[in-house]
């Protein structure tokens, strides 16, 4: 039907230095199973691979049928494949503690006698705080640099984009803070309020954060190192979701690896006398496949069939690998 070559392997060959890959898309389309299969494949290529979940709702343990929460573990029968689910709650608690310390310090520094709790509440009681704590977590894993290849099962599609977009704002902010801090410092010295130089944890934190963001941005926008793949089903909503994501990512210069179509019913396995809803579904999928070719064309990397069972455990994952990297 279509003469477009669909190949994940070809993409990987053309990107030999690829190190960080992500799977984005609507909930339930198969991001986690694709992440698992990609990690397994990379390990089979001889790369020491980490499959990491920074998603507050973990599903790797379920996928791999072994407990990988809060520790690093060997996965399946693949020696070089490690999986890891980050303890989200702990990360968030730690971030809150850090913020609390900084706010307390700042209030003292600025001679503000308000209770710190209100500030801390407003700084930490919002979903963006949790998201950014998880993003920081991901950055930590990347910067530790203990693996050759990283597959992130994460929900940061909107988040990565937002945070990377924010890094410019952070830079401006930090620069302004720096300047005013220096002015304040020299004023203090002139008036010799304080003889010895005081450490400024808030400023230190901001400077450090700015550096980390800049570093992450450099890695995540480098098309030889990073690729975001988008998973869709041949259905209208998941297609709409990834169309929007891909546009955002292009805007931010984040490299798009391509599109994976999942859950395609294999027509030849269905008899003419199949239940009507099955036949209707095939018809619907065919129409959406047309749309997928039209919108994504040569960005399509793989077409994965709908299996007879869910994808769980080494055997099914290996079967998925066969299709994803056909
Ligand atoms: N090609 C497929 N055939 C059959 N079941 C699949 C297929 N892809 C995914 N699944 C199942 O669909 C469910 C959702 O997949 P999952 O990877 O958890 O989605 P997401 O991470 O995008 O929310 C899981 O139960 C998974 O085993
Ligand atoms: Mg998932």
Describe the protein.
This protein has 326 residues and is of the alpha/beta class. It has a domain at 8-90 and 132-167 and 220-324: P-loop containing nucleotide triphosphate hydrolases (Rossmann fold, 3-Layer(aba) Sandwich), CATH 3.40.50. It has helices spanning 8-14, 31-44, 60-64, 88-109, 116-124, 127-144, 157-191, 201-220, 236-252, 276-296, 313-324; strands spanning 20-24, 49-53, 73-74, 81-85, 149-153, 226-232, 256-264, 300-305. An eight-stranded mixed sheet has the order 3-4-2-5-1-6-7-8, sandwiched between helices. It is elongated, with a radius of gyration of 24 Å. The mean pLDDT is 84. Bound molecules: adenosine-5'-diphosphate (ADP) and magnesium ion (MG). Adenosine-5'-diphosphate is lined by residues 25, 27-33, 59, 262-263, 304, 306-307, 310-312.
Concise synopsis of the structure shown:
The protein is 55% helix and 13% strand.
CATH superfamily of the domain at 8-90 and 132-167 and 220-324: P-loop containing nucleotide triphosphate hydrolases
Oligomer: single chain
Percentage of helical residues? 55-70%
**Main sheet: strands, sense, barrel:** 8 strands, mixed
**Average of pLDDT:** 84
Shape: elongated
Rg calculated over all Cα atoms: 24 Å
Cα distance spanning the termini: 18 Å
> Could you give the count of β-strands?
8
Spatial ordering of strands, largest sheet? 3-4-2-5-1-6-7-8
